[in-house]
Every structure is written in structure tokens, then in C-alpha cells.
Amino acid sequence: MFTNSKLAQSVKLACAFGAVSSLGFAAPAIAQDAGADEGAVEKIQVTGSRIRRADIEGANPVSVLDAIEIEKFGITSIGDVLQSIPAAGSAINTNNNNGGNGTTTINIRGIGSNRTLVLVNGKRWSPGLGGSVDLNNIPASIIERIEVLKDGASAVYGSDAIAGVVNIITKQDFEGVHASAYQGEYISEGDGNKEQYDIGFGVSNDKGNVYFNVSYVEEEPTFAGDRPISAVPVFGTPEGFGGSSGTPNGRFMYYDANGDFQNQTGTGQQGGLAPWTEPGSRFNFAPFNYLSTPQERINLYSQGRYELTDNVSAVATAFYGNRKSAQFLAPTPLFFGAAFGDSGYVIGADNPFNPLGIDLSTDLPAGDPGWLFLVGRRMFEAGNREFKQNVDQFQFNGGFEGVLELGDSEYYWDVGYTYADIAQNTLTDGLLNTDRVKLALGNECVNDASCVPLNLFGGSTGIGQGSITQEMLDYISFTAQDAAGTTLESYQANITGEVMELPAGFVGFAAGYEKRWQEGYDQPDALIAAGITSGNSRQPTEGSFSVEEFYLELAVPLVADMDFVDSLDLELATRYSDYSNFGDTTNSKVGLKWRINEELMVRGTWSEAFRAPSISELFLGNSDSFPPLTDPCNGGAAANPNLPGCAGIPAGYVQPNSQIRITVGGNRNLAAEEAESFTYGVVYAPEWLEGASLTFDVFDIEVEGAVSSVGAQSILDACAGDGVTLCSLVQRGSQGQIVDLFNGLVNLGGQTTKGFDMELAYNFETDFGDFKFRLDATYVDDRSVIIVDPVSGAETPFREAGRAFDRDVVPRIRSNISLNWVNGDWTANYLIRHIGSTVENCSISASLNDELCSDPNSGPDGEDYNELGAMGYHDVSVGYFINDNLRVTAGINNLLDQDPPVSFTTFANSFDPSMYEVPGQFGYVRFSMTF
């Protein structure tokens, strides 16, 4: 495996299959830079090091996916492909509707997508405000291969490379034209249509080459109501359970003229009110939501190289992408009242639609006649809420590279400039101006000709129908227009070569310098910034920072050509970074590679890593969020005698709404995260079984000072538990209701994850064709997040391995097993994507836990648990070369029509879209042409 002849055989066999590796399986990383003389041993760069070397196997664990392997997934986003590799954890994608924004990210090791660095051709790709890269805007048609480094690499690349690095290598020196057309949809349901078209062409001569590519993708949505698991708020529960208090007929909680508390709902008749019942009166919002969201993407990519002299070339790449995406939610719920800490709301006695004849006011003393505790009215007449993004992304990389010859040595150098800009405009329909709502409900509106009285009591019979007229809507509604953007600019200079010869070989080195600037902004609509919206209000975000960096790498051969030591190499790297906002940091890396013989190699690394806080984390303006939370103090102090934090809460208190208003925001005083990682393992390619290889690597990552929020539910539970921890972050009203909760960002605690990766490959030939078997598996032995209370210093660990949390599923085992077959013009692929079982806390309700939780009362303190069972997605595809230039491929993803396991902790859909897929068999066909 380690000899040139073995490498040549591997490459030939890979070409026969059309793939270098399968789904992140171990494979030689092909040269990132070419140009060696014919007959010479080519020196290349492999992701994880900037040193050019002849040996493609380094101390770092690197896996490779090539263009054909990517195509076999049968999906249109490279982000979705990367989310399927076993080393990846939960991450946002286009199946995230409520809380999504059209992006798809990669989260190696599950410790945060902003802790995975994304490169294109070795250059940093521009992230969004939050520090994560949207992989949707990188078209699959330009990709030659993807190298995935599953190890920390800040010493080589700088910030963000804590969990790993994804390096996307584009097509190089392509001549001719390639084009493809793709279409797919969910077979039985006939929805979720996806189309992709692309064309690329390249020309070259002895002085240089140019490549240009255009791609277009359109993805249609699926609706939550079209799948049983997502058609209700909580699958398997009685009708209305988990639904919203904001209903088309309204919910009204107030004290009447006699001082009696009323909890009522509208009857659908003008002024008609009836007692509210649980859960039957609640509104099922689920069918109105997208399950998978729509997108339209157009991408233009070009790259070129021109030899100015024999040893100097000018190089440039340019990319432009436009993404139009959307999310769709049920009509706006108008919530207001003392339950939310609101003031200034009065439903006047003179309002012609008030059936009660008294003023209902949030500003009266609690419990007085007319005190308005809660109103929840679903504004069906205004139609659904739609959030539409229009994102333009541009990136340019240009510079010079060449070879410097000094004596018998060659030094490869490059200098370059990068400029990237992302601009996003967002339109949100269906929002309400709450200042106008207050005016329209009050007594003064009746005598103001410019004001239109609002009728909340008449009810609605369907979308666009009900007691709220178009004139009323025109007076209180608005379309929000938000703008956001980021800019990245940098200069780089690098050099690599050999500096001296030792008895065991030459010492290789790489050194370089980079200066980088990043800035970003988020400018919400004026009404949102002013806090007079029925949606989430937020303040503007704006900020910038710069960094200056130097790095040095060495590859030192220690011993060679001895018994049991074919070679022993030491790899060293260090990087100094000086940031304008938090100071400087130095991070180093040590690797050791011991090749025992041609069959067996042992390797290991220790590295320091860091992550600078993102623009959003530093400068995010305070904003509202409405997550689903369970108040541990339900029932008041009397019902919770073992929870000191519930003291003083009135008996009989019931959380008025499942979604609670909280405040989130950035922190300009954040420091950089720091991390240490260890990896060690073996690579084995036995001569007695040609075509077989095995890699086994152990990983151990610890992050300190992690930038995160504690978590709203964690804050509530910690405060209730002892009456001290994090209680300063919770604000309650006079009736015990949560008025606000601050869940801002801090350098609080850390994360750890430990486990191993195993990759097994076997290529073999038969009379019936050539086969390639691959197994890629990741086992997570430990995963924890440590939060530290900023006041008491108490540490609380959570997020353990084998557990599932809302949009953070941590299975102990994920694996991909594939079998590829090639015989003449025919190809076939069978893939099983296995996701191991996990366990979640199961707190549905006292009456339903025993019925729906798989393991009630099974926790150490009698907690109820629910198991998300292990499952596997089975994908098949068949390809045929119609002629030398035209190939057709057809496939079915989720062949066995597996449904994801039901989850009771996940917000919306009753399954977690960050790990599992939309239910249904997805069929597709692709035509590919080259000439």
C-alpha cells in the first residue's frame, strides 16, 4: 500500500470503480497540486499539512470522497452528503423549517458546525455571521473530491479547525464539456421534487487552462401534514395535545367584572365564549408547516491558471452563488397579556367587538376585575407566515505560485489574495405591528377615523376567512425586510520544501503568513428592532475583527530502513495568531508516524486548537426567542416541595403556554475557545489479501471555555433545583409565570468527546465483475457538555453519549456499509446508512408517559426515558453507459421506506431532522454526458 506500485494499482482499481473511496472511507488523498516531472515521484499536499511530500499516508486521519461517490447519494446538496458520513453529528439542513434559514452545515464529531473548518482548494471559505459555512452554495458539479480531516488542525490552518477540516477540491486541468440533468421525488407521496442541471467546460494548452461551470438546483417543499409522524404536534397523543394556545377562535384568560378568573375560548360566533378545555381546545399548527423547505440555487464558478514563466504561474478562481429559500409556518399567533410581562394592552369596553362590557387591561393590579392575563388569537385571516431568503455570495481567490530552485532543492511558494462577500435579504410575511394592535383594541380607536377597531372575538373558519377583515389586517400587519451580510478579506504567503538531509531522509518544512479581516452585520426591519412585532424582536448586529498569523511546519525523518522500522517520522507544527479583539494565541501540534513495514503503520497526533468567537457571538443584538419549555414549577410551591426554586409561586399555577419568551444575545467580551485533541491508530494493508485495507483511529477532544448558552430548559431546571443556581437569569411575574429568561452567550464550561473510527475496505475482481466493499464506522464512547454557573461556580455535565436532545442526537454508533459493482457498461451501488439507538428524557404528561415512553420509570431517580431505536437507510442505484459519452443512473433512497424513530424531545415533527430524513422512498434519475 505504501509503495509506488501499490499506489498505482490502487489508483487503477479506483478508476475502474469511478471512486477513490466510499462515504468517507480511508483512501489515499490524491495530489492537491500537480506538476512533477514525468518519471519522478510526485510531491503532493494532503489536507492537514502544507508540506509537500511523496508519502500520501500521514500521521493525520484523512478520508476522501470523490465526485462519482458523491453522485451516488442521489441528492442535490453537498452538505447533505457530508452530514451522512459517520463522523458527522447533528447539524442544520433544509429539513429544519421552524428555526431553519435555508443553510446546510457540517458538524464533525457533533461538537458544533462552527468548530469544523471548511476550505475550498485549501483556501478558507467564507462563513456566515455565526461562523458556520453554508455548504448548499458549493455546487457538487465543480468537485473533484472532498478530503475530510478528522483531527484538530489550528496549528496549520488557524481558527475553527477544532473537530476537523473539510477541504473541497475542485476539478483541475479539465478539458472538454461535461453536463448532467437530475430529477427526483418521493415516490408514494409524489412530493418534494428536486431538479439539478449543470454544465462545465474547460480548455487548456501548454501555457495554462481555464474552467467554467454553471449549475442550477430547484427543490420543492414537502408539508408536515402529508406525513403521519409530523401531522400533529406530538405523534401518538390525543387530539389537541401539544397544540398552541393561539387558536383561530382565540383563548382569553382574564378576571371578569365579579373578580372571577375566566379561561375561555371563542365559539366561532361573534362574542360567543365557552370554557377552555385541555387539550381539545388547542390548535394543531403542524399541518401548515413545511417538513422540508424549498430552495432555488444558481451558481457560477470559474478558475484559471497561466504560466508567466517556466517557474511562475498566475492563478485565480471566482465564484458567485444565489440562493432563494423559504420557511413556512402556521398563521401568526397574536399573544399578549400579563403572562408575558406585557403592558399597555387594553381591550376597551367601547371596542365594538368586546362582548364583556368592561376594560380588559394588562396594567391593572393582579387579580383585579378586568386584569388581562393572556390572549392568544391565531390570525388565520392573514394567512401563513413565510420567511423568504435571497442570498448572494461572491468569493475571489487570486495570486501567483511557482517553484524556486536553489541548488539541488526546489521550494514551492504561493502568494494570494482572497475577498468574499455574503449579502442576505429576508422578507417575512404575516407579522403584526403590536403598537397598531394596541391602538386598534383600545377605546380611543372608536373616535379616531385613521384607526380600524380590531375584532379578536369572532373567530375564523379557515385561511383567509373570519371576523378580522382585510381593512383590519391592512391596519395592523406588515412585511418585514431584514438585511444581513459578512465580508472576509485576506492576504496569504506560503512556502514549502526541504531544508536539510538527515540519515533517515530529508527534513520537509512549510511556513507562511496570513492577514485576515472579517466583518458582518444584521439589520432587522425597523419595527422588529423597535420591539413592536408579533414575531421575535431583535436588535441590530454589527462588528468586525482582524487577525495576523504566522505558522511553521516540520516533517523530520528520525529512523529508516531498520528491522521493524521501515520509517519513523516526527511531524511538528505551530501557529501564532494575534487578534484585534481578544489578544494573541499560539497553538502547536505533534505527530508521529511509525511505518513498521509495507503492510502496517502506526500513527498518532497531539494538537492544540482554538476558535475565535464569530461576528454573531460577539456582536449579536439581544433578540426574542420562543422555545418550547417545561416549567418545573408547574403546580406552584405546594406541588413541588422538593424544589426550593419554586418557593413563593402560588398554588395551582399552570404554565400558560408551551412556548416561553426568552432573550438571547451576544457578548463582546468573549474569549477564544481552547482545545486539545489526541488521535492515534493503525493503518493495515495486508499483502496476503490484495485490495484490502483497515484503519483504526482513536480520538479524544476536549474544549475549554466553549462559547455557548446554558440552555433555557437547563436554566429553569437548575434554578428550581436549589433556588440559587442561574436564578438571576429568570424573571417571573406575580402569578409565577415566566416573564423573561436570559440565555445569552458566555465562555462557560466546555465539551469532551471520545471514541474511535474504523474503516475497512476490500476491492476484488470476479468473473461477474469487480466489487468494492466498504465499512465506515464511528463509535462515541464519551460526549459531555459542562456548564458552569457564573455565580456559584457549580459544574453541571449533560449531553452524554447515546442520548438524544432537541436537534442534537448523539448515537454511540453510526456506520455506512456499501457494496459497489462494475461490469462493463453496468454499475450498481448498495448502501446502508446505520444510525445507532439513543435514549431521551420522556416527559410528555403524567397520564401519557407510561403509555408512550418506551422505558417509563427506568432512570436512576425514576425518570421516564424513551428509546429512539437503531435504524438503517437502504439506498440503491444502478447506472448504465449508453455510449462512451452518455450515462444514465437511477436510484431509490430509503428503499425499505423506513420511518425515523419517534422523538418526544424534538421541537416539531416528532422526529429530529438534524439526524433523520423526511419519511418516504425517494426515487431519482440522472443523465450525465461528457464530450
TrEMBL record:
PROSITE patterns in alphabetical order: TONB_DEPENDENT_REC_3
Localisation per UniProt entry: Cell outer membrane
Membrane topology recorded in Swiss-Prot or TrEMBL: Multi-pass membrane protein
Keyword Membrane in annotation: yes
Domain TonB-dependent receptor plug: 59-165
UniProt keywords, alphabetically: Cell outer membrane, Membrane, Receptor, Signal, TonB box, Transmembrane, Transmembrane beta strand, Transport
Superkingdom in the source lineage: Bacteria
One Pfam family per UniProt: Plug
Signal sequence residues: 1-31
Domain TonB-dependent receptor-like beta-barrel, residue spans: 375-895
Family to which this protein belongs: Belongs to the TonB-dependent receptor family.
Protein name: TonB-dependent receptor
Species: Alteromonas arenosi
